Each structure stands twice: as structure tokens, then as C-alpha cells.
Amino acid sequence: MSSSLRRFPRTVGTRTARFLRHRWTLRIRTAAAILLISLSGVVVGTLLFAQTDVAVGPFRAEMSVSPSVFGGTEVDIPPLGSLHLDSHRGPIHLNVNLGSLDQERTEALIDQPGSFSTAGQSAVDDVTGGVLKVGLRALGAAVACALLLSALVFRNVRRVAWSGGLALAVTAGSLGLAAGTMRPDSLSEPRYEGLLVNAPAVVGDARRIADNYGRYAEQLEQIVGNVSRIYTTVSSLPVYEPAGNTTRILHVSDLHLNPGSWGIIRTVVQQFEIDAVVDTGDIVDWGSSTETSYVAQIADMGVPYIYVRGNHDSVATESAVARQPNARVLNNTVTTVNGLTIAGIADPQFTPDKSETPAADGDEPATSPLLRAGTQLADTIRASPTKVHVALVHDPAMAPPLSGAVPLVLAGHRHQREVSMLPAPEAAPGASTPPAAGTPPAPTRIMVEGSTGGAGLRGLEDEEPTPLALSVLYFDELQELKAYDDIELGGTGQSQVTLERKVVGHDTESTAGSSTPTGPTPTGPTPGGPTQGGPTPGASIPPSR
Known about the structure:
By secondary structure, this protein is α/β, with parallel strands linked by helices. The chain has helices spanning about 5-20, 25-50, 105-110, 115-155, 155-180, 200-205, 205-210, 215-230, 260-270, 315-320, 370-385; strands at about 50-55, 60-65, 75, 80-85, 90-100, 190-195, 245-250, 275-280, 305, 325-330, 335, 340-345, 390, 410, 420, 445-450, 470-475, 480-490, 495-505. The protein is elongated and about 85 Å long.
């Protein structure tokens, strides 16, 4: 071995040692250590000490903040569930736990007329004061913990001071970012997690939320009032109190022979005081005569059941649905419920051996049976003597010709929740009657429902079962869609429920399905289970009015 090769390791080691001892290297290492200690102090101090108690209405609420990537606020209402609000952005998450009830304040609310309104009005100031208090505690705890940790590690006054200053800057900046991105109107669109039967009472009246979503104080008063009434009513949970002129439609689709779907549908019909159920098809799997008995439970709903045939449903399936006393089958026809006019047409294709029909988006209207069916329905809607408010199709590929002919199209088929706007009428393929000259194109919203049956047996093919999805739509006295609740339950073998309210026209209205966080949910009955009015297993149902 040559002398140069023998000297090579020593040369590399010497240069590495010099680099590590270089003053800039030492400064960078020291700065990184100070930053790490400061951030550790901020996290530890916030998690351990950034919490406070505050009186909100009849409650002793526990407020706390914690580090977070997405921000937001969570209001825990044990044992009813929780509300999740997209209240702000930034690395600070606010948690409000209404777990403790003050007996004296509760008795005062019960005894005094109008006390719930008074409690709601004072709740705005209570919450504001509590947020400021917990923010100051977070700031102090973060700085104190950073100073303590740096003193233990460095034992150097200057480095300890730097750590405290960084902790102060990080915490103050995070709180400032949260305050600067505050969205008071987030109370208009809460996402509820918990027992499905409690959702209407906790979330509140969709019409009032839609009309007042920009008014922070009124929304907070409403939520406090709702929760207060729940806690002070021991015998039964309070029932939903909708506006008298609100029409509530439950949208279901793609049940695919799941027996548990009927129990869930009945629970939602009862708890949300649904006026009618609309089913956009694929109620069975193969369209065979042996499957027709599955639809017999439609009669137990107690409200009109409006149905259009899907590509998995046969004519025999359609006839079986039509035999139910409360069913209305639409096939290029129109019906009316509570002043809401609904038109629908059956899927022209019968393909029970496929989970998806051939895509028709790029087909010519003359050759695509789906677009031809959509065009037929559009012509029927335009020829209707009364204005049609909702159109029902199974496959969203049938919807383009309906653009401009109707404000709202409901569909299914894809087993995935989607909300979007159809292209303008002049750009919609297959439209046989263009809008009149000089008339601005009417926007048409399409709402594609997920599978209320969890895709049937297909829902078990993936690693995670397909969730069960259904939606409650709220229409005002002018039959305009004001808001909707997306309800999603865990698939077969799971037990979670999510309810997410969206206000139509709100700038944060989502076009995607909701998530499925953990929480208890009622499970549907097996065939031969409880009928309408009976308790669904796993759910506590208040008396019907």
C-alpha cells in the first residue's frame, strides 16, 4: 500500500474534525439545538397547561388548545357526540368540552321563561373570554417550558433567552394566524359526529342556519340553546323543530339488497321528519324475481317513496316497487310532494352483471342511450305545465341534457358522493331545446349520492368496506334547495357515523363526500326486524309527534 493511500483516512478525518470545529458549523448546530428545544417547550407547554374552565350557559366548559396542522374547533357534547367547525387555519386547534353541567344554573334555566335565549346571548361573551384566557395561558406555558428546558440543556443565559424568545415568537405567531383566519360563519356548517338519532337536535334547523349563517352570535345562541334543552330533558331527547314551510327530502341510492339499509332509512325518516324519500335506483343486484321481496319494506316508511329504475333493476323490480302503497315510480313522468315537483326517468340499460355501465360521456346523443334518455326527460320537463324543481336519474351520464331545464338533478350509480354544477345549457351535449335567446342559462346542480347499501356485497371487496351514504335535502317555501346534510355511516362490520351540513351558495360549500371518523351508530335490522315506529338496534328513538 502506498504512503498516499495510508495517509488518506487521516486526511479525511482531519478535515472532518476541522469542519465540525469551524465556528459557522458550531453556530448552526447551536441554533438548531435552540430551535429544537424551543419547539419542544412550545408543544409540551401547550399540551400540559394550555387549558381553562369557563361558564357557558348552564355548562362548565373546558377549553384547551393543542398543536395542529389544519386548525379548526371541536365542541364535545358527551354523550351526544361532537361538532367540528372549520373555524380557522393555522397550527392551533381549539377544543371545547361541555362535559360538566352546573346544577344551579340548569335549574334557573328551567324555572325562568326565556332563560335559554338569555343563556345563548351571554354565551358569546363567555366563549370569547374563554378563548382569550386559554390563548394567554398557551403563550405563557409555551415560553415557560421553553425556558425551563433550555436552562436544563444549555446552562447558558444567552441561549436560554434565545429559546424563550423563539417560543414567544412561534406561539404568538400561531395565535395571530388563527385569529387572522377566523371564520365566524363556520357555525353555519358544522360537521356532527355521534349518535345519528341526536343529529337533528344538536345541529339545529337548516332553514335558520341557511338564512343567518353570517351571524356568529345567533348561531352560537342556537347551538347553546339546543344542547341546553337536551341536557335538561331527561325523559326523552328533543325532537327536530323545523320551519313549517320547509320540505325535507331524503335521497338514497344503490341499496343493492343490503337489509341493514332499511333500518337506517327509517331512523332518518323519523328523526329528521322527512316528507318523502327519493331513490335513484339499483335497489337490488340482479333484477331477479326472487329479489322482489326485498322492496316490501318500502311500505313501512310512512312517507312517499319516489323511485327510478337503475341498471341493476329489472322491469320486474320496478313493478314490485310500484305495488307498494306509498311508492311512486317515475319513468319519464312527473309527481309532486308538498309542492315540490319531481320528474324522473329509468336507466335505459339493464346490466346487472356489471358494477358500472359503459361510459357515455364521449358518445354522440344519437348513439348514447343514456344521453337519449336524459334528452327525453328534459323535453318532458320543459313541456310540464308546472315548474319541475328536481330531476331523478340513475347514471350521472344521463344528466347533461338536463342542464338549464331543472335547478337540481339527483343521481347515484357511482357509489361515491359528488356535488357539482352541470355545464351551461348551450354546452350540454344532447340538449334538444336550447334556451331562449337573451335568456341567461339557468345553473343546474347535480348531486350524486353514494351507496346507501354500502355497494352490497361489492362493498366488501376492498380492504375497507364501502360506507353507507344518504342525504337530507331542505327546500324552502319557494321549493329552492337551501341546505343539505350528508350522512355517512361505516360499512358492513363498522360502527361510525358522520353528519356534515352544507349551506347552498355558501363560499365553503364542499363538493366531496364527508369523512368517516369513529363514533357509535345505529345498525339496521335484519329481514323481519322492527317496523316503523319500533326501535332500531343500537339507537334510542324519541317518541314520534
